[in-house]
Design goal:
heterodimer; A: flat; B: Helix Hairpins; 4 helices
């Protein structure tokens, strides 16, 4: 049962990844694209969590933790360098 | 007990997927960086956290729910910080709001 509900969630999450990539291509300004990349890593964390649930393999959650840390550092670095640029 | 766990997992996954999809749809449709940040914050707080709650519920019997709890704590701390940082950087870059009723920061930074 967990497999089917997880596959449903993964299908909808892949649709959201496609929408985010399309918007990353369209996005008119630089912060739009940064928000798109942040959203992509957030959906990546969600995909990793659902995959760990399907496979019943909790070690995969470490990958999600590392992804969250790297995404946070990247976004804060963007804001810091914009602050230096002005 | 098994039935309660199944119902909890299915409910958490459905609500989390719904919030993720609606958040990305709002990110796709809204006109502005600031409103887009409002929509994408929903994905980071409700969507991912509820999917992680589902993962924690399924892994309760093999003593590894702590990873999910640490990740939920991390997401709840870093989500508002990144949203604030991006919106502040966008304001400093000079990006206008789509429909601005009032702008208190413009008088303050002048």
């Amino acid at each position: 049962m967990n497999e089917w509900i997880g596959l449903f969630a993964l299908t909808l999450l892949m649709v959201t990844v496609a929408l985010s990539f399309w918007r990353l291509r369209l996005g008119p300004s630089l912060p739009d694209r940064v928000v798109a990349l942040d959203l992509l890593t957030t959906v990546g964390i969600a995909v990793t969590a659902v995959y760990a649930m399907i496979m019943n393999q909790p070690l995969i959650m470490d990958v999600a933790t590392v992804l969250a840390l790297i995404s946070f550092l990247g976004t804060i670095a963007f804001a810091y360098y914009v602050d230096l640029m002005k | 007990m098994e039935t309660f766990i199944q119902v909890g997992v299915i409910t958490a996954v459905l609500i989390g997927t719904f919030f993720s999809f609606v958040g990305v749809l709002g990110y796709f449709r809204l006109p502005d960086v600031y409103t887009k940040l409002h929509a994408s914050g929903k994905v980071g707080v409700f969507g991912v956290v509820l999917l992680l709650v589902a993962t924690i519920i399924t892994s309760l019997n093999n003593f590894s729910a702590g990873r999910g709890l640490i990740l939920i704590l991390l997401l709840l701390i870093t989500g508002p910080v990144t949203s604030h940082a991006i919106s502040s950087a966008a304001y400093r870059l000079g990006i206008r709001m789509a429909k601005s009723v009032r702008d208190d920061l413009a008088e303050k930074t002048r």
